[in-house]
Amino acid sequence: MKLSLFFVAAATSAISITSAFVVRxxxxxxxxxxxxxxxxxxxxxxxxxxxxxxxxKDRETKSNKYDxxxxxxxQEYNIxxxxxxxxxxxxxxxxxxxxxxxxQVSDAIFANEDGIKAGIVRTYPKLxxxxxxxxxxxxxxxxxxxxxxVASKTGKSAGPSIGNWISNVLSPVDASKVPPPPMKE
Length: 185
What we know:
This protein is of the alpha+beta class. The chain has helices spanning 2-18, 54-71, 105-111, 113-123, 162-170, and strands spanning 75-83, 92-99, 134-140, 149-150. Strands 2-1-3-4 form a 4-stranded antiparallel sheet. The protein is elongated.
């Protein structure tokens, strides 16, 4: 009898000791909140989103054109500017341009000269008033460590010429959408 009483006392103390380390779920009451659901809400009405300006629409159009030319295999170039006749270390980055294969980068730069100059003056206010003394340069965006080449205005040559023929022969052609030749079986 003493042994069974001792055994029962030891078992109950062991259970009480080990139950101290057991995680018990805390009794919690879950209450759901009733929220007011109003369609309009409180406060002033939200303002209409601002309409895009003509300049913003123009920039988006040009950005889409840049993306389109780059996606179809055109070359991407970084554009730089410096004061005319400065040394080769004084180029300021002023944007990027994408040119279709076979087109000249210089022609694309000077076709957009007014817009590029406006962007340069906006980015570098100290160059305001020196727009006539700006000299443009470029290098391939893929190779930014290459030296900057000076962009020069070239006169448009009309008609076929040896220079145009050589340029067309040496120009890499985008053949990504050309189907392979048929295989004879």
